[in-house]
């Protein structure tokens, strides 16, 4: 770390240096239709690192010696211009007029290829380019995960409810795989993961993702989504693909101010009015969200830049709870529960839970900069800091549910029960610095160091530790429950060179990476976990989220070294072949083995190409999965003595894991295949890609194990001080198949009108590998089989999280219209069906063999039908550089299906499923947004 900070300081000094250059190229870049200057346009010299960006008015200066140069001018949403320009000794003025891009396939991409200048139609594998800086003008969503969910069909992220820490950090998927099976980059550099482990019953249970929402959307220029296995190119996690977030580098001032809230109606009293269909009987306005983002860029010297973004977001809570129909107060002879409630001047609404989006307030700052040291080498630095504080609720503690031994004391604090809350304080920081350029006869190099850290601290409020009642004079109602941290330091050195005289061009690249990961757990304060009075027989610790125990605390680290080589050959002008090899070795579990990727693209015609790829990949078990430990202390009577025992999640190195024969974690491995085609048929663009991803030794979080009547196991657990235990383990193999397609048509109409239609879809089929009997093949230990706990190792609900709990298809249709200063966007998204499989239906271990009957309210399985949400935005250019947009997401107030059985509704409280979601359950969102660019 000390060397890294010294390195950063040297680079910072470079930014403050002053350099003198000869006269060069300058001018302006304007929109061909409006005549207005375009900020943030990239102007570069092909074959060199020399380049600059236009300022807020579209002006640029590029200092060059006299001579002839091939200048490339590119901006997201515009056609690329490549032109030979002669620079005179006295300087040259050159203006460029950019034409709005009709073909998105012509956009240049940097992800998935180390060769310069590949466009979407030229890449051997599919890459989506999301011009986020433009998309945000027309959407109400304010964070990256939600924006991508409604724009990119292969990407899915639904906010969770009543799921502890996962309420505060949205897990995200690509191609229906886990959040930790997609690699996230920022400016092409590996981004660190969150310290949060998804251990609750959400769709991504047992996984660890990257908190992309910690990066302000205001700071992002575009996002490239590589939809193909790329572990041989980029390393661990890139099984489903790669998401590369490219930060802004424009100069000038820009920003946005947005506000919105949910205006909706939902069936709150569905359980009460069960026989009356699906009435939307309650109107709600909540979840007010305000966002302020500012982006300012300045020049450093003549060719460098420094871009700074600040953003603050305040997201209000939402609540779509149902009316509780169960027992609220302890039974009183001669009075019904409703009579007791009424006698206190209350209604059942007073006992509502809070089921919906958590409240989140926070913001951050992002810096992105670069400065040439000379004509061939530049230094660069980027990074950011983000902090957000959240609040989410758990299950209501009704007076009837408070243990009898402590009711008197609890009722003194909470006479009508209480709704405990989990608070979060999440800090995310990162910094990357490096030098890159050209050395030794046209070899490109890039030396960089990236450090990132995520800190997730838990708090509990409006709660109580039952064991304190009668044991301390004033029981606590708020607690510090401890937290987790994860940090990562990555050093990369990359070299590449283009040989133009080998066939039609050969790009050679190779490099090395050294990475150090560290995961830690901080214990909560004593009152958050301690049992102060074992004789009461009540659960210890803060209600809703007992704190981390001192035995859970600790810090663990590991390192790994990786080397790779990457070749990309233009055999002919029509045929490209690429290949990559990678080898990594980890300090804790050893080598991942040699991984490879081979891809090719062939142009049948100038605008028609076929492409395909074959690759192997891997995902190293995260440190979080290896060492996460969250246990609660319980007291059991053993041999007539009250004995403390622990229940919860144990690491694989623990004694309870050895009792059940749980092995140490090893890396997941994958085999991927893809084939596709791209075409430009006049104004019509079409891309179609099919894929298959086989994953071996996939890591899952088991359910709880007990001795289950086995005396030997019971004695061993008692000796280890444990009772109910679960673990992370390599339990299953899976296969993912899918088809992804994008069809786009854009045209300019007479009198300045323009239209663009886009239809994109992803069709996903993920399955757990099954045996000849149709049941999942589970890699269980002999001890678990002998004790009859195979269903606790991996059950039907676990299976459904992989196969059917996320939409099996998503289709997005978008129409963009422009005329003069007026614009409109209409978008419809069809989310495919999702299915909930109840783990208690043990007679059917495969959902394929199970006949669902949603009309039978005794059936605990349920299929939720496809739904379509519709968004509409109208925008108007109020003045030069100022745009006002108003609109609504889900304008027709669509919700996913309501539960059709009371079991999952939890006595009416859960009107909508918290286990499986298509697009959340918040309803219509109306908003206004002001964007400006000076």
TrEMBL record:
Looking up PANTHER family in the UniProt record yields: PTHR47234, SECRETIN_TONB SHORT N-TERMINAL DOMAIN-CONTAINING PROTEIN
Q: Which residues form the TonB-dependent receptor plug domain?
A: 120-242
- Annotated signal sequence range: 1-22
Q: Which residues form the TonB-dependent receptor-like beta-barrel domain?
A: 383-891
Q: What is this protein called?
A: TonB-dependent receptor
Q: Is Membrane given among the entry's keywords?
A: yes
Q: What is its main location?
A: membrane
Stored SUPFAM superfamilies: Carboxypeptidase regulatory domain-like, Porins
Give membrane topology per the record: Multi-pass membrane protein
Keyword annotations: Cell outer membrane, Membrane, Receptor, Signal, TonB box, Transmembrane, Transmembrane beta strand, Transport
Q: Describe the family membership recorded for this protein in Swiss-Prot or TrEMBL.
A: Belongs to the TonB-dependent receptor family.
* Subcellular localization(s) per the UniProt record: Cell outer membrane
Where does the source fall among the domains of life? Bacteria
What is the source species? Answer: Flectobacillus rivi
Q: Which Pfam families match?
A: CarbopepD_reg_2 (PF13715), Plug (PF07715), TonB_dep_Rec_b-barrel (PF00593)
Q: Which InterPro entries does UniProt cross-reference here?
A: Beta-barrel_TonB, Beta-barrel_TonB_sf, CarboxyPept-like_regulatory, Plug_dom, Plug_dom_sf, TonB-dep_rcpt-like
